[in-house]
Amino acid sequence: MKYDLKITAILLAMFIITQFIGLYVVNHYQAEDKELPFGMETPEIKEDKEYNQIFVSIIFAFVIAISLLFLLTKFKAEFIMKLWFFIVVMIALGISFNSILPEFKYASIIVLVVAFPFAFIKIYRKEFLVHNLTELFIYPGIAAVFVPILNIYTIVVLLILISVYDMWAVWRSGIMQKMAKYQIDKLNIFSGFFVPYADKKTRKKIKLLKEKLKDKKISKKDAKLKKFKINVAILGGGDIIFPIITAGVFYRIMGLIPALIITASATLGLLYLFILAKKKKYYPAMPFLTIAMFLGMIITWLIF
């Protein structure tokens, strides 16, 4: 197992919570026919062939966004990258928060005011509790934009393409690891869940230090000078959002139960990865999630 049971349980719990928040947010804007805030509009699709046209546009936009991200990373344009992340985070949080408020004239302004400090602390201050709290709402907000413009066929193709890219980026080129390291070390941000933890040996050292501090065998000043190695358990943002989008598409087209089957299958796929994975090794999560969700789709089609 890549992480111990406690850390695995925390990551899985945050993943599941985000999936359910995502279904709620998606349903709010779809089933209740509510408009997205901030003047955002999704194209009205009348024929199935329009999904294919929009899908090509989505892929093209993804390629541009990833290329721009690589370019900014290469030239170390940290100010621009942080500003970009800040704007995206604030809008995504605003979309999610807006689904909670009743509809009234100044709702979009209020959610931006609420989202602003969370986005600011997340991007410009290193605070992992705020980071993980905002992650719970960012991906549901983004998913609400994409769910209306995808159907089952296009989401299946998208999952395959993303999984192939994920395998290449992690196992072949190593770009994903480099990007994650750059975000954490240089930008002090990370797109995904971020849980610091200490191994057993380090925990014993910390416990011993606390005992010495309590018995006044060491001063607080000397205790602060002690350094301990802290590990980090992470789950990338793409591994969180694509299951939300997939479940959201099934929710829109087939209903709640099929969406819950997709969510359950994705969770089991992630759990399988955590059990299978070895410590200090990197794995692309999307292939595991995609295969699991495909099995969930087969089950859904057999039942419904």
Textual characterization of the structure:
The protein is mainly alpha-helical and 304 residues long. It has one domain. 73% of the residues lie in helices and 4% in strands. The chain has a two-stranded antiparallel ribbon with strand order 1-2. Helix 1 crosses helix 10, helix 3 runs antiparallel to helix 4 and helix 5 runs parallel beside helix 10. The radius of gyration is 21 Å and the shape is globular. 30% of the residues are buried.
Task: Please describe the biggest sheet, giving its number of strands, its sense, and whether it closes into a barrel.
Answer: 2 strands, antiparallel
- Runs in which pLDDT lies below 50 for 5 or more consecutive residues are none
- Look at the structure and give the mean pLDDT: 86
Cα distance spanning the termini: 35 Å
> Whole-number radius of gyration?
21 Å
Give the percentage of residues in beta strands.
under 5%
Keyword list:
304 residues, mainly alpha
Spell out the blueprint of helices and strands.
Elements: H1 5-30, H2 49-74, H3 78-98, H4 107-124, H5 128-146, H6 152-172, H7 175-187, E1 192-197, H8 200-214, H9 220-225, E2 231-236, H10 237-254, H11 256-276, H12 285-303
Antiparallel strand pairs: 1-2
Brief account:
The protein is mainly alpha-helical. The chain has helices at residues 5-30, 49-74, 78-98, 107-124, 128-146, 152-172, 175-187, 200-214, 220-225, 237-254, 256-276, 285-303; strands spanning 192-197, 231-236. The protein is 73% helix and 4% strand.
